[in-house]
Amino acid sequence: MLRRYFSINRLCSINLCILIFVSVLFYNKSINEKKSLNFLIINQSSEKSVFQSRLNQRLFYFGQQFPHINISKLLHIQTTSSQTLTYFCSKYCGGWGDRIRGITSTYILAVLLQRRFVIDMQYPCNLTHFLLPNLVDWIPKYHIYEQKNYLKLDPMHKYGIELYSNISSGNLMEIWSKYENIYLTANSDYITPALKNPFFQLIKSQINIQSNESTQEILFPLIFELLFEPTSIVINQLDKLFSKSSLSYNQSIICMHIRIGQNPTVPKDAKLPFRTSIVLDMLKFIDKNLNQSYSSIFITTDSYEVQQNIYKHYGNDRMLSIPGPIVHIDRYNSKKESYETLYNGFLKVILEFYFLGECDTLLRSRSGFSEWASYRRLNKYSNLYLYCRGIHQITGPKWRRPYNIC
Ligand SMILES: *[C@@H]1O[C@H](CO)[C@@H](O)[C@H](O)[C@H]1NC(C)=O
Ligand SMILES: *[C@@H]1O[C@H](CO)[C@@H](O)[C@H](O)[C@H]1NC(C)=O
Ligand SMILES: *[C@@H]1O[C@H](CO)[C@@H](O)[C@H](O)[C@H]1NC(C)=O
Ligand SMILES: *[C@@H]1O[C@H](CO)[C@@H](O)[C@H](O)[C@H]1NC(C)=O
Ligand SMILES: *[C@@H]1O[C@H](CO)[C@@H](O)[C@H](O)[C@H]1NC(C)=O
Ligand SMILES: *[C@@H]1O[C@H](CO)[C@@H](O)[C@H](O)[C@H]1NC(C)=O
Ligand SMILES: CC(=O)N[C@H]1CO[C@H](CO)[C@@H](O)[C@@H]1O
Predict the structure, then answer these.
(1) Which of 86, 174, 302, 385 has its CA 20 to 30 A from that of 295?
(2) pLDDT tens for each residue of 333-343
(3) Distance in angstroms (rounded) separating the CA atoms of residues 223 and 176
(4) Which stretches in the chain have pLDDT values below 50?
(5) Domain with CATH 3.40.50.11350 in the chain
């Protein structure tokens, strides 16, 4: 049904289509979850949420960009297979950028192996406080220690090269056939190599993934939307930010992601070189080139001091940010931080990730967090800049940064 819909939607008018597309998504979902159709009506009437209407717009856009993908095949695999492949994160699984790289990789692997996909992330707290399944129901049915016949792989720390090689060219269906359940703690792009693996070509063609879209960079935003729906905590906070940005300024938003690495705010984080003048360089660049006084400025950073400096420079009225503690969700002091701090820190990370997908202009540090966020923008490469020992415009998918370390 979805697939037929995916091709029809090009024919009809935009507003109507957003409604149809979203209804079909929700309808399909409500059937999966055996929910009543009230679900659909409630969430359509909640269109007054700016953030939700932006999410719907994004779904509509993906419907046009990926009309050929056999969504019902994806959902069929998810609902009928008894074997599972779980993205597992209980400690040392990286920041949010690493995690969503790992999650989307694991999802595609699960599809290719025709296993049910599961996300088990309780670290630093249950992910489901912030994100719930959208079309793909990835909620665990069993705890890992209740499983008998399972394989646990942690390629971030062990056998990373061997696993990568198996994913690129091994017959994993056979190699892993004896395991009912597989747990994977990964942070690599396995989508690009897996979709080149000759053993996966049949299933790949059944899902109808084209060769020119077989990369994580291209598939990421679609997979992210299929997997996740933000909870009302997330939606409400983001709407507050949107209402502030449109109060005095008309929706044009310049975003800055300033990641400086180890500093008094995140003392356990890794040291990052070449970032001592990042704040000054970014401010100079914005003031010289993007100085329209009607834009709001959104800041996300790993340093309270940097945040303060940006606020001082532009003034509170013009500034947007997510309140709450700055926490590196993998590299925090577990003896010092309370559950409440970790919860609020994780929530802040998710909110910032979503908001970065809404920027008209994005200046970012080299970091998976803002890289994946930038791919969620409807106009992926418009007004996108990377700080790499100076500011460079990212012009498209073929652009390469001037230095490896930056
Ligand atoms: C999509 O997948 C379903 C199986 O889930 C199959 O019945 C259908 O024929 C597929 N559609 C196309 C166009 O391949
Ligand atoms: C995490 O949340 C999910 C969904 O609400 C729930 O099923 C699961 O039991 C929770 N896990 C823990 C360890 O609390
Ligand atoms: C990779 O494949 C080989 C067989 O070709 C298997 O023995 C090995 O366990 C696999 N390793 C991983 C990490 O999957
Ligand atoms: C892949 O190729 C098709 C036509 O062959 C084109 O319509 C589509 O935009 C291309 N996709 C990407 C992501 O480049
Ligand atoms: C925003 O408003 C300013 C003046 O208030 C106007 O000059 C500018 O063109 C507007 N920009 C957009 C994108 O609507
Ligand atoms: C932006 O800066 C340039 C050069 O500094 C100046 O010519 C222009 O008038 C400024 N525009 C605004 C909207 O402040
Ligand atoms: C299941 C679900 O996400 N329902 C949401 C529909 O929209 C209302 C209003 O925003 C939310 O409260 C529900 O949680």
Answers:
(1) 302
(2) 888 999 999 99
(3) 24
(4) 1-24, 26-43, 45
(5) 232-393
